[in-house]
Amino acid sequence: MSNHLGWALFLNSGIKNHLVATLGELIGTTMFLFFAFAGTVVANINSPAGEKLTTTGLTTGWNVNKLLFVAFSFGFSLMVNVWIFFRISGGLFNPAVTLALLLTGAIGFVRALFLFLAQILGSIAASGLIVGLFPAAANVRTTLSQGLSIPKGLFIEAFLTAELVFTILMLAKEKHKATFIAPVGIGLALFIAELVGVYWTGGSLNPARSLGPSIVTWTWDRNHWIYWLGPALGSLVAVAFYALIKALEYELANPGQDSDSAAALDRERAVRMRQEVVRRRVMGAMGYDVGEMRSGGSGEFERLGRCEMGLVKDGVLYARDGGGGRDSLGGRRDSLGGREAASGVGGEKAGAYVAGHGRGGSRSGVYTAGGGSAPHVGPLGTAIRDSGESVR
């Protein structure tokens, strides 16, 4: 009995979840880099390069066919393995991506540390498999091409990593109706980055990817630090831009892109989203703490938290006192996502939200109803008097 209880407690513990995610990340990183490195070795199978040369430079007999083969190997290996391991560990396989998700709050510090270690070990394991299994030269290290300066190499790595990380933030972290095919976009992002980066820098975009081959072949370049600093800077740039567009409420710039039905719903969704923004600003101006707004799985806004007037949940404000009446909690949800008030002078239906200040008083919402009548819809940012007259 005690053994079963202990096992049940372990299955529900945080440490178990960290261990499972770490194991998934270790295997996933190994598989991703093994197939990517194997494709690179095959692409360079007839090159005159020695075992300690890299994927870059004319010394490997470089041509466009090899470039496409290497880029394809990395991009599609990432796509497939992210799709496999996304539900286990997130399918990051890259310390630069781990840093971005840590900074944006998608994962905690402990999980990030476990994943980082798994990514390093996975790269070493993949590199060891390549050296041990294939008799061909393991041309999988990354160095700067001849004639490329250190600042330019650093910028290339940072720029390409920023593109990859931002793709991951928008397709995987931001939940939308196409999140389930995010691995396709992520893999294609790495593919196009490799088309540019492989020749000039080796196309690392990933500190673990560069570290593993250097450890296994025990060949170190004086510019190895570029493959740590460059991706880290790129990750920071992507996170900064992501934070900026989130602060500017990018969902309102091009609304309706995640509509689950016909385009006819786009305008309604845009109006509802704008109403949510208006409500937040009005309530903020009145001094209420309306909690945090974040994007839900369907692209709609979801608001959680408490305010002095009552509970705010799922984008609806439930007032403690609806203008002399009872609490509006317990009413049924109407088609606009609001609730029908149990009673009160402030009106029969609360619409999207109400903040009554007495009989026939002003409302802070876009939808109001007075005197027991159904709510009227006014222009954005306006309220409706009991008589239906707009109030600016």
In short:
The protein has helices at 2-11, 14-43, 64-85, 95-103, 109-133, 150-173, 182-201, 207-217, 226-247, 264-285; strands at residues 292-295, 301-307, 310-313, 316-319, 367-368, 376-377, 383-384, 390-391. The chain has 392 residues and is α+β, with helices and mostly antiparallel strands. Keywords: Membrane, Repeat, Transmembrane, Transmembrane helix, Transport.
Structure description:
The C terminus is likely disordered. The chain has 2 domains: 238 residues, Glycerol uptake facilitator protein (Up-down Bundle); 128 residues, no CATH class. With 392 residues, the chain is of the alpha+beta class. It has 10 helices and 8 strands.
Please state the overall shape, judged from the principal axes of the Cα atoms: globular
Taken as a percent bin, the fraction of beta residues is: 5-15%
**Helicity range of the residues?**
40-55%
CATH class category name of the largest domain: Mainly Alpha
CATH topology of the largest domain: Glycerol uptake facilitator protein
Tell me the total number of β-strands. Answer: 8
CATH architecture designation of the largest domain: Up-down Bundle
The N- to C-terminal Cα distance equals: 68 Å
Number of helices: 10
> Major sheet: size, sense and barrel closure?
4 strands, antiparallel
What kind of oligomer do you see?
A: single chain
Count of separate structural domains = 2
Provide the low-confidence segments as ranges. Answer: 292-392
The class by helix and strand makeup works out as alpha+beta
Q: What is the chain-wise order of helices and strands?
A: HHHHHHHHHHEEEEEEEE
Rg is 27 Å
**Rounded mean pLDDT score:** 75
CATH homology-level superfamily of the largest domain: Glycerol uptake facilitator protein
Transmembrane segments: 26-46, 67-86, 92-110, 115-134, 154-172, 179-200, 225-245
Membrane topology: Multi-pass membrane protein
Protein name: Aquaporin-like protein
Family: Belongs to the MIP/aquaporin (TC 1.A.8) family.
